[in-house]
Amino acid sequence: MASVAPDVEGGHNTVADLAERCSAVLETLRDGARSARADERREPTFPIGRAAELVSRTPAAVRDAERDGRLPPPPRTETNRRVGYTLAQLNDMRGVFGTRPWRDADDPCAVVAVQNFKGGVGKSTLSVHLAQYLAIRGYRVLLIDCDSQASATTLFGYVPDLDLGEEETLYPFLRQDELTSMDYAIRKTHFDGLDLIPANLRLFQSEYELAARMARGQGALLDRLAQGVASVADRYDIVVIDPPPALGAISLSVLRAATALVVPVPPTVMDFSSTAAFLAMLDETMQVLDQRGQAPELSFLRFVASKVDENKSMQKELLKLMRQIFGTAMVRSPLKDSAEIDNATARLMTVYELDGPVTSRAVRDRCLAYLDGVNAEIELDIRATWPSHLKRLRKEGLA
After folding, report:
1. Longest distance between any two alpha carbons in the chain, whole Å
2. DSSP string across 80-149
C-alpha cells in the first residue's frame, strides 16, 4: 500500500487511512449541519411581492385569487403575518394564472452542458445555480452530474461516497446496454420542478470502461448518454449537464447529448490559456466526430466570465480582451467573485437557497444580481431554441 510522509507523531498514514479520515470528517460535518442534509432541506420561500413578480402577476391578483378560492388561503404565522410562498406554491399559482413557461410539446428539450477543461473555473457552481434559477422561473429541470468529483451533487446536501452507491448514478446506464431509461437514477430535490441524477467517485471507473470499449470499435457508446437523456426528456424543459473537467469518454458523450454549450472562463492568464486549448481540442474533436457522422448540433455556444475580480487590473484587461474575441458569444453579465457564494458553498448550499445574507445584505444583493444576470441571458438563449417561445420573444423585442 502506498504511503505518505510521516505525521507529526512519527507514524505513517496510508492513502486508505487518510481517505477514511476525510470521509469521517465529511460525515460529521453532514450530520452536524442538519440544514445541509439532502433529506432535510426545504424549498426557498418568497414574499408576496417577489412571488407575484415570478408568476407574472401583481400582488393584488394573487390576493384576489386567494379570496375567491382559486388559490388556497396564504399560510400565516401565529401573529397573522404571511409566511413566504414556497416554490411549489408558486408553481400552483402559475397553473391557476396560466403563466407556466414550459416549452410546447413540439419544442425540443434544451440540453445545456456547462463545460471546460480546467477545474476551479466555477463550472459546478454555475451548473447548480443555473438549474436552480430555471426551476425558480418555473421550468421543469433535470441536472445530471457527470463529474466523479460530484461537486454539484454535494451542493444538494449529499456526501456522495457515503450517501450514494454506484447504482444510484449514471454508472449502471453507461455500462449496461440493456438499460433503456435513466429513470432509476432520478432524485427529487428540495426545489420543486428540479430533479437530480447524482454522481460519486465510482463514476470515474466508467471513463476507463468506455474508453476500452470504444477502442474495440464500439463507437456507438458515445451516444449512450444522448439515449439516456432522450429516455426522460418528455418530462423536462431543460436538462443541465455538469461534465468532468477533461475531454475524456464521458465528456465526449456529453458533447453528443448537448444541444448547447456554456463555457465558464475566469479572466486570468492560466484560465484563458486553458480555455484556448479547450477550444482547439474541441474543434479537432468535433471534426473527427463529424467525419463519423456524430458531430454535435449546438444551438448556441456561450462564454461566461466567471470568478471575476475587477479590482485586479490584469483581470480588467483580460475581460476586455475576451469580449473582443468572443463577441456576441460572450454573456454580457460577468459572474463576479463573491464571498456570498463561498460562504454558501461552505454550507453545502447555494445563494438561491439561503434564507438571508451570510455576509451582508448589500453583498448578497450584488451577488444575486450577478447570478440572475448571467442566468437570465442563458434563459433567453434557451427560449430562442423553442419555436413557440421565439415568436413571443420577437414580439417583446428580445430576439
Report:
1. 75
2. SPBPPEEHHHHHHHHHHHT---PPPTTSPPEEEEE--SSTTSSHHHHHHHHHHHHHHTT--EEEEE--TT
| DSSP class per residue in 278-312 | HHHHHHHHHHHHHHTT-----SEEEEEEEEE-TTS
199 secondary structure, DSSP code: -
Q: H helices of the chain, where?
A: 15-32, 48-54, 59-67, 87-97, 123-136, 151-154, 160-163, 171-175, 203-215, 224-232, 249-257, 269-291, 313-326, 339-346, 361-383, 387-395
CA-based R_g, the chain, Å: 22
User: Tens place of pLDDT for every residue, the chain, 399 residues?
Assistant: 444 444 444 445 677 787 788 777 766 765 654 455 666 677 889 999 999 999 999 999 999 999 999 999 878 888 888 888 999 999 999 999 999 999 999 999 999 999 987 778 889 999 999 999 999 999 999 999 999 999 999 999 888 878 888 899 998 998 888 899 999 999 999 999 999 999 998 888 777 777 777 666 655 667 889 999 999 999 999 999 999 988 788 888 898 899 999 999 999 999 888 888 888 888 887 887 787 777 778 899 999 999 998 788 889 999 999 999 999 999 999 999 999 999 998 888 899 998 888 888 999 999 999 999 999 999 999 999 999 998 888 877 776
Q: Are 117 and 246 in contact (CB under 8 A)?
A: yes
Q: Give the H/E segment covering residue 74.
A: none
Give just the sign of the alpha carbon dihedral 305, 307, 308, 314. Answer: negative
For 182, residues 6+ apart whose C-beta sits below 8 A from its C-beta are 170, 173, 197, 228, 229, 231, 232
- What is the DSSP pairing of strand 260-265 with strand 194-197? unpaired
